[in-house]
Structure formats: structure tokens, C-alpha cells
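Regression test case RT-17, inverse folding.

Input:
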């Protein structure tokens, strides 16, 4: 009997396999991020993305029939480079894993040789290459090679040969090339599509790519610093998408948030655009140390199922609490830990909390077990100095001062609670205001202020940032959705969200208790406010009486009537003096208010400049090339040499363009300087090395000083470290103002040998900076009292009519900023034949 039953294998068309892969990368941005993750899984310490985008100019006729020139992106000639110094891939890895669609290598081999948890598991990441472009060329230099070794005598020679992994001492590399268009051929199945793999001898990735990018100093310098004993370089051409600076800016921002916000990392990312190296560069993580509260919760379900909690309070001034609000610690709730004065003096409060005390008893213990261990770091940052000004917030609570603009900027970019799996962010949690924990709804149901009542305070979602760390190994129940946009909403994830809300509740309770008791103290003190109001009424009566007595004594008819004068005196001389003192203090407050209004006005100017930063950057990028394009076009129609013979220099268009180019160069320099002040890293408190800072300072001002024939000299008197914890933008305000004053002082003075000198010296715990010039020195009107130059609205700059043209703010700002740093100071040490300042910063 004939057997009509046969077994037949499934076949997958090449196009279907490709589409399955591409479904996971709906955007070009997601594809780039996937490839960055692959470099992390390869144990790379550095991933470098280089975009070589080609633009050509075309002449077209617009709707009005006018010929115009437009810029067109050339996809076919553009290229994306992805360079890493990971372990690389040898031929067997490329054949058996890289070339296997849906490989399960990362599914079962969770950890890399370097100890990292691998981020990928589906085995389709290589289709991110196809998402970006139609041609891919990969060069890989592996750290090891799989070498066949001779069999022992007793082994069966017919069996598979023995292999061994040995160091790649001869630098043998492999080149892999694929044309993704082959997947689209009609009728093709996956096995019909082939890539080309070839062996390369003596591969030196550093040498090859340093030479390739030798005309780009920033990239060349970075490549020279990276250790390339092994690594992989991917070149993607025939791009599918039209890239531009806006897209790259968005990608850069998302890559900044790709990694957890930590100060140190063993993995760094750099992004460059060949046409504009100044725009991007090294990605900085979202680390921020200016917060009101920080709560860190660590849960390990494998041991005692306990949450380890650390709370750092940074909102209130502890000295003020101790000296001006000390009565609050007499309240019952503030007599016990963690609310006693000594608890506020601690850097952080640490305690363990069994998870059962946080969650409901009804929670399924097996469900909790499947949640797994995690870390949660939560930050609270107020947007303004107080939560509720109308309710007397500033009087109730001894807040520390904050930089509201910096906080709003940071929260806008990095705010929200984000989830990281094995050190890579899972989108879209916390992205663009995504309130996935529904904190907004929670706060709307209990909208009371932090000090109004106990138990009624809930945080608003626009005041927070946070990071949650989970892992493929310990949180297996948290599986990605098919499109890799979020985690599947199962029972385990629902319980996890509730645990996070309960942890946030620990912060809310802590802040609520503290602020409620301070609010109660303020209520008890309201009697003092009433006393102050009555005292002001008395001051007004005393002032009126004093004025009436003065008028009375000046009346010629009563001039000698001393008895009447004394009879009219209702208050004592000491009471009148106290009334005068209060009036003086009120006038001082008015001056302070005037100062604040002026500073707000200047801040508004800065905000306007910041809002137009994008347009200014675009203008800056076009300044230098535009004259080159004009010259190139003119040479198509005019003979430059012949014009030089027949025309006067001032009539020669080529000479005129040279002058324009010089002016454009000056303008670009000033735009670069102005835009550099808007960079976010300058508005972050960080360890600032003064010597490196002044090196950059000198470079930034070099063009302006050169035009004025002024030499800037930087002296380092000893080999000590000159590092303080500071905002770089503060130092810019100090030394830009000092330099600007020195430049103006040199104007019309010292025709030659104009000099500005900055000297650095370490004296015990102090950094001493001497800032001097050899200009005209201090203006005559300040010779007797030099310290007046630091006063608000004080300026010696006038026009030829004697009208003040200076703002009178520069040195006032300098002194104010320096004195904000503990025990730091500025002094004038020389006022003749130049001006010399001594600035002393205390180091911590």
C-alpha cells in the first residue's frame, strides 16, 4: 500500500521575515536606540554615532514663476556610522547568531562577559539596520577567535573538530555586507537571501577611522582616546529617512534620557553631525543634585521581603529651623524620630520597612513574589520658592533659596517617573509629561496644601522626577508589549504601580507632618503679626507728632514758648528714634524691591534670547558658508584675476566679499559665545576645575581680545587642584563682567602691550584668584572709597555729555554671586596703573 502522508517544512518568505522585524521599529529614532543597545550588550564602553548628511542645492521655479534655490537632502549619498569598542564578533558568531533571525542567544545567555545584563532578547535587532537604510556594511574586530585544535589520539577523528577560543593576537577582522533590497525580491524565501562575509587581516579600527575623520578635530580626538583593541563599525547607506537637525536634536534628547541619571557610568554615548560639530557631542545623563526631597527605596524579595528606605531632606534651612523655628520641636509629633532636630541635621534618614506594612493584607503573596525586586529613586522639586504665596508660605516655612528657572528647565526635560530595565529606559513612561501613575487624578481628589491638614497632602505630577530599575532576571512578569512601547498591563504590573504609590506616600507623609507643624507654629505666632500692625500705627502717630512739633517750633509767634512745646510732646526721644529706625528699614526694603524688579527685567531679556536660540543657531551655521557659495557662483561668471587688474580694490566684488567674510567671522564668534551661556550643563551645579574653566574662557574671548590688541595671560602658581562645587553660569557672570570692564578700561589707554592677567593659587582650603589689568585703573571719583564700585546702579561709564551709559550692575552682580558661596569674597588690592581684584573661594 502506498503511503500518501508526507511531512513538509514551513517556509517563510524573505519579505515577511523582514516585515516582522520592522514592526518593532516604527520610527528611525527607535531603530538607532536599538543599535545603541546592541553596543551596550557587546560590553562597549563607548558608542559613537556619526551622521554624514549630504545636502545639495537645486534651482527650482516657485508658484510665482521665480527661480529660487532650495536645499535637498540626498538620501543615497548620506551615511550613518555606529562605532563601538565592544568585544566584536568572529565569523561563527556572525553566521550562527547575527545571521539567525529570532536567535535565542540573549534569551538564555542573560549576562555579558563584562557582567552586564543583556538588553535584547527577541533576536531581531539587526532589522533596525534595514529600517535606517538599504545597504549595510559592518566591520568587526573580535577580541577572540574560534580556532580548531588537533584531536587527542584517543578521540574519534570522524567526529566534529575540537575548537577553542583564543585571543585575536593577529587582529583578524570580518567584513559583513548586505543589500536589504534582496528581501523584497518576488518569491524569495529567507534562505535565498545571502550576505557577504569576508576576512580582513591586520584590522586597526582606530587608525582607519581616525584617518577617515581626520578633518573633524572633535571626532578625531575622541577616537584617539578610545581603546579599540576590539570593536565593531557599522556603516548604513542609501538612507530611508530624511534626517535634519531637528530630528537629530530630538534623538539626542531621547538618548540623554536613555540611561539612568547617575554621575558615573561605564558606558558613554557621543553623537556628531559632520556639517555642524558644535551642535551635539557627548551625552550627559540627567543627574541633578538640586532637589527638595529625595527618597530611595530598595526591595529584595529573595531575603526578608523588606523595603530599605532612605529619605534625604533638602527643602528647609536647618539653621533657621534651629534658631527661628525652634518651638516647632516642642510639638508632640516633632518630639519623636524622624522629626527631631537631630534628624534634620542628618544627611539622610534610613530605615527598613517590611513590605506587609506598606501594602494591603488582601494582596496575594504569590502575586507579590512575581513582582520581583526593584529600586525606586524619587525626587521632589518645587517649581517656585513656595507652594502657596497667598497663604503666607514664605513666612510659615524656612525654605532654602532655589533657582526657579533652572528647575523648570530641568523638570521640563527630565521630569516624570521613568522605568529602566537593565540600565535602559522603557518608553513611554515619564516621557513628555506621561503621568502613568495617575498622580494628577490622585492630587485632584485631595487638593489641600502640604500644611493645611494631616493626611490630606498629595504630590502634583509636575513637581517630580524618578527612576525605577528592574531587570530581565528578577522581574520576568514585566514583559514588553509587541511594539516595545511599554509593559503589558498584567496583575503583577498593577500591584507594582500600587506599591510605588505607597512608597511615594512615605514622602508625602514625612513632608506633610513637618509642614503641618510649622503651619501650626505660624498660627500660634499670628499674635505677633497683630502686634506688628499696631506698632506700625504707633510709628505713624509718632512721625506725625514729630512733624507737628517741628512746624510748631518754626512758628515765629511761638518761637520762645518752650513750655508749650514741651506740653505738646507725647512720646519720648527713644520712642521717636525707634520710629525713625523703622522708617529707614522700610526705605531699605523699597530699595531691595527696586533691585528685584530690575533683576526680573534682566531675566526677561535672557528668556527672550533663549526663546530665539534655535533661529540664532541656524543663522550662525549659515554665516561662513554663505560667502563661499557667493564667491563660487561669481567665479562661474567673472574672472577674478582680470577684475583685479581692471578695477580698484574697493570696487572689486571679490574684495568686498572678503570684508563681508571677516565681519561674518566676528559675528559668528559672538553668537557662539552668546549661545554657549544657554547650555544646560552650565546651569547645573558640578565640580568645576578653575584652570580648565579659564582655558576655555581664554579660548572663547580670544577673537574679541585679538581685535583689540589685548593679551590674556593665565598663570598657574602651583600644581594644586582648583576645584569647587559651583554653577558654571555663575562663574561666567563673574569673569565675563570683570573682563568686559577691563576691555573698556583699555579703550584709549595703553596703545601697546595691553594686558589682562588671571593668576591661580591654592592656600590651604582656599582658591585665590588674582584678576588684574594694566589699563587706566579706578576712576578718580572712587579713589577715596573704592568699595563703592560694587554698589547697585554705580557706574563710571558716561557719554560725551556726562550721561550714564553703563548699567551699574556688572560689579554688583560679581560681588553678589561670589558672596553666595560660603565665606568667599572679592577685594580690590590695586587701583593705580591698572586695577587688581583678589577673589577667594572656599573649597569643601
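Golden output:
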Amino acid at each position: 500500500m502506498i503511503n500518501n502522508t508526507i511531512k513538509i517544512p514551513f517556509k517563510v518568505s524573505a519579505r515577511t521575515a523582514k516585515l516582522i522585524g520592522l514592526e518593532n521599529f516604527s520610527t528611525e529614532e527607535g531603530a538607532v536606540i536599538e543599535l545603541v543597545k546592541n553596543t551596550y550588550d557587546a560590553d562597549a564602553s563607548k558608542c559613537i554615532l556619526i551622521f554624514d548628511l549630504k545636502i545639495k542645492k537645486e534651482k527650482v521655479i516657485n508658484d510665482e514663476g521665480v527661480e529660487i534655490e532650495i536645499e535637498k537632502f540626498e538620501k543615497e549619498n548620506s551615511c550613518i556610522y555606529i562605532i563601538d569598542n565592544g568585544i566584536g564578533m568572529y565569523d561563527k558568531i556572525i553566521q550562527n547568531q547575527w545571521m539567525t533571525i529570532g536567535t535565542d542567544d540573549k534569551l538564555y545567555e542573560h549576562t555579558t562577559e563584562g557582567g552586564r545584563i543583556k538588553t535584547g532578547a527577541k533576536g531581531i535587532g539587526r532589522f533596525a539596520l534595514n529600517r535606517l537604510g538599504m545597504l549595510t556594511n559592518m566591520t568587526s574586530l573580535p577580541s577572540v577567535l574560534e580556532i580548531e585544535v588537533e584531536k587527542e589520539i584517543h578521540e574519534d577523528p570522524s567526529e566534529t573538530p575540537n575548537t577553542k577560543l583564543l585571543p585575536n593576537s593577529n587582529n583578524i577582522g570580518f567584513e559583513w555586507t548586505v543589500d536589504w533590497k534582496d528581501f523584497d525580491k518576488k518569491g524569495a524565501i529567507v534562505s535565498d537571501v545571502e550576505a557577504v562575509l569576508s576576512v580582513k587581516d591586520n584590522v586597526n579600527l582606530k587608525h582607519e577611522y581616525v584617518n577617515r575623520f581626520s578633518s573633524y578635530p572633535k571626532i578625531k580626538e575622541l577616537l584617539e582616546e578610545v581603546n579599540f583593541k576590539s570593536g565593531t563599525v557599522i556603516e548604513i547607506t542609501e538612507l530611508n529617512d530624511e534626517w535634519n537637525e531637528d530630528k537629530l536634536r530630538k534623538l539626542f534628547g531621547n538618548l540623554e534620557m536613555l540611561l539612568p541619571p547617575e554621575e558615573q557610568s561605564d558606558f558613554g554615548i557621543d553623537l556628531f553631525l559632520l556639517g555642524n560639530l558644535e551642535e551635539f557631542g557627548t551625552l550627559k545623563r540627567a543627574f541633578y543634585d538640586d532637589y527638595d526631597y529625595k527618597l530611595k527605596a530598595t526591595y529584595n524579595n529573595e531575603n526578608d521581603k523588606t523595603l530599605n528606605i532612605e529619605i534625604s531632606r533638602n527643602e528647609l534651612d536647618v539653621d533657621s529651623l534651629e534658631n527661628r523655628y525652634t518651638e516647632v520641636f516642642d510639638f508632640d509629633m516633632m518630639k519623636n524620630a524622624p522629626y527631631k532636630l537631630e534628624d534634620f541635621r542628618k544627611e539622610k534618614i534610613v530605615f527598613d520597612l517590611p513590605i506587609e506594612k506598606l501594602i494591603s493584607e488582601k494582596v496575594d503573596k504569590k502575586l507579590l513574589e512575581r513582582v520581583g525586586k526593584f529600586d525606586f529613586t524619587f525626587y521632589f522639586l518645587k517649581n517656585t520658592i513656595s507652594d502657596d504665596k497667598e497663604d503666607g508660605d514664605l513666612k510659615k516655612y524656612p525654605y532654602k533659596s532655589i533657582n526657579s528657572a533652572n528647575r523648570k528647565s530641568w523638570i521640563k526635560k527630565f521630569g516624570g517617573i521613568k522605568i529602566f530595565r537593565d540600565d535602559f529606559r522603557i518608553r513611554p513612561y515619564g516621557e513628555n509629561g506621561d503621568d502613568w501613575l495617575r498622580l494628577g487624578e490622585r492630587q485632584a481628589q485631595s487638593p489641600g496644601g502640604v500644611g493645611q491638614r494631616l493626611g490630606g497632602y498629595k504630590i502634583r505630577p509636575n513637581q517630580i522626577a524618578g527612576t525605577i530599575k528592574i531587570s530581565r532576571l528578577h522581574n520576568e512578569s514585566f514583559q514588553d508589549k509587541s511594539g516595545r512601547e511599554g509593559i503589558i498591563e498584567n496583575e503583577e504590573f498593577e500591584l507594582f504601580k500600587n506599591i510605588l504609590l505607597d512608597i511615594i506616600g512615605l514622602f508625602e507623609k514625612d513632608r506633610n507632618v513637618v509642614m503641618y507643624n510649622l503651619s501650626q507654629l505660624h498660627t500660634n505666632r499670628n499674635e505677633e503679626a497683630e502686634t506688628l500692625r499696631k506698632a506700625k500705627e504707633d510709628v505713624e502717630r509718632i512721625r506725625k507728632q514729630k512733624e507737628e512739633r517741628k512746624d510748631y517750633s518754626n512758628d515765629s509767634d511761638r518761637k520762645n514758648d518752650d513750655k508749650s512745646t514741651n506740653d505738646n510732646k507725647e512720646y519720648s526721644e527713644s520712642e521717636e528714634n525707634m520710629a525713625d529706625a523703622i522708617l529707614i528699614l522700610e526705605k531699605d526694603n523699597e530699595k531691595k524691591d527696586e533691585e528685584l524688579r530690575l533683576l526680573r527685567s534682566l531675566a526677561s531679556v535672557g528668556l527672550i534670547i533663549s526663546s530665539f536660540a534655535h533661529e540664532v543657531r541656524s543663522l550662525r551655521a549659515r554665516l561662513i558658508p554663505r560667502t563661499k557659495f557667493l564667491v563660487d557662483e561669481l567665479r562661474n561668471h567673472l574672472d577674478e584675476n582680470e577684475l583685479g587688474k581692471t578695477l580698484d580694490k574697493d570696487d572689486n566684488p571679490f574684495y568686498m566679499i572678503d570684508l563681508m567674510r571677516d565681519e561674518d567671522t566676528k559675528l559668528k564668534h559672538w553668537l557662539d559665545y552668546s549661545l554657549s551661556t544657554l547650555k544646560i550643563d552650565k546651569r547645573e551645579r558640578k565640580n568645576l576645575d578653575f584652570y580648565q574653566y579659564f582655558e576655555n574662557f581664554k579660548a572663547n574671548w580670544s577673537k574679541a581680545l585679538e581685535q583689540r590688541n589685548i593679551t590674556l595671560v593665565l598663570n598657574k602658581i602651583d600644581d594644586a587642584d582648583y576645584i569647587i562645587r559651583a554653577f558654571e553660569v555663575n562663574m561666567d557672570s563673574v569673569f565675563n563682567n570683570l573682563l568686559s570692564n577691563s576691555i573698556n578700561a583699555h579703550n584709549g589707554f595703553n596703545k601697546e602691550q595691553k594686558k589682562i592677567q588671571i593668576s591661580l593659587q591654592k592656600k590651604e582650603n582656599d582658591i585665590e584668584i588674582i584678576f588684574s589689568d594694566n589699563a587706566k585703573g579706578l576712576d578718580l571719583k572712587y579713589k577715596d572709597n573704592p568699595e563703592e564700585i560694587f554698589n547697585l546702579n554705580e557706574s563710571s561709564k558716561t557719554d560725551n555729555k556726562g550721561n550714564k551709559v553703563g548699567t551699574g550692575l556688572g560689579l554688583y552682580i560679581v560681588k553678589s554671586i561670589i558672596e553666595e558661596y560660603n565665606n568667599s569674597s572679592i577685594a580690590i588690592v590695586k587701583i593705580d596703573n591698572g586695577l587688581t581684584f583678589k577673589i577667594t573661594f572656599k573649597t569643601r
